[in-house]
Amino acid sequence: MKILIVEDDGKIYELVKEKFEQWSFEVAGVEDFQKVMEVFIAESPELVILDVNLPVYDGFYWCQQIRTVSKTPIVFLSSREHPMDIVMAMNVGADDYIQKPFNLDVLVAKVQALLRRTYSYGDTISDVIEWNGAVLDLKKGSLHYNDQEIHLTKNEFFILRLLLEERGKIVSREELMRRLWEDEKFVSDNTLSVNITRIRIKLEDIGLNDQIVTKKGQGYLVN
Predict the structure, then answer these.
(1) Which residues contact 41 (CB under 8 A, 6 or more apart)?
(2) C-alpha gyration radius of the chain
(3) 3-state SS, residue 151
(4) Burial class (CB in 10 A: 0-12, 13-18, 19+), 160
(5) Are the beta carbons of 192 and 214 closer than 8 angstroms?
(6) Nearest by Cα to 37 from 84, 74, 1
(7) Which of 13, 37, 157, 200 sits CB 3.0–4.6 Å from 7 for a disulfide?
(8) CB 48: neighbour CB atoms within 10 A?
């Protein structure tokens, strides 16, 4: 399993990283603290350890951002010890709050317990699809891009998800309609065209222009 450690203190980061690697966890970190969300999406960790005091935006901000697209467990690791900091952490979606200084063995034990409660080991399917800086939320059926959110109808979401899962490949109209029928979403050829047009308009509304390419006589392609 992979853990993302968002910590700007290099010594603490290395200590925590080394400890979790001893327990055979894969560990990722953040170098540019303006891009925490991008790293989270790219790394797709099973758990996040998050400091409160960070450059640019604090940990509360990043916790809220992650919660807009994911239920991945988040543990705050902070020197702040005021009860209101703990209350704030829980209110923005954290699963636990550990104060510095901390015992590494206790931290590992808490993380392992949280992972056991959250996952059936081996079942770690991500609930988001990242695509050119946008995030398709598979739980909410919505798309996020540059702090904007668009809501998709059931058919629009299903079609966009299919195209993204086959990203880089041409998906024929027949394949799209067959998959829709298999999911009991019965659409005609004309209805499929209408849905594709609506998706394109919604994407353009948030600045994602020309994302769905029509391959004449073949189908659709998303890069």
Answers:
(1) 69, 128, 130, 135
(2) 20
(3) strand
(4) buried
(5) no
(6) 74
(7) 13
(8) 26
Beta strand segments in 7-69, E: 26-29, 47-50
Beta bridge partners of 213: 221
3-class secondary-structure state, position 105: helix
pLDDT tens-digit map of 117-149: 887 644 555 677 878 778 888 877 888 887 788
Q: State the amino acid at position 154 in one-letter form.
A: K
d(CA 55, CA 7): 10
> Which amino acid is residue 16, in one-letter code?
V
pTM of the model: 0.61
Q: Is 183 left (phi over 0), alpha (psi -120 to 50) or beta?
A: alpha
Residue 186 structure tokens: 């019965």
Query: What distance in Å separates the CA atoms of residue 160 and residue 201, rounded to the nearest whole number?
Result: 13
CA angle 194, 192, 182 (to 5 degrees): 150
Contacts 24+ apart (CB under 8 A), 216-220: 218/170, 218/172, 219/170, 219/171, 219/172, 219/173, 219/174, 219/175, 219/176, 220/163, 220/170, 220/171, 220/173, 220/176, 220/196
Residue-wise pLDDT for 141-172, tens only, equals 888 887 788 889 988 999 999 999 888 899 99
Are 65 and 58 contacting, i.e. CB atoms less than 8 angstroms apart?
no
Q: Say if residue 66 is exposed, middle or buried (CB neighbours under 10 Å; 0-12, 13-18, 19+).
A: buried
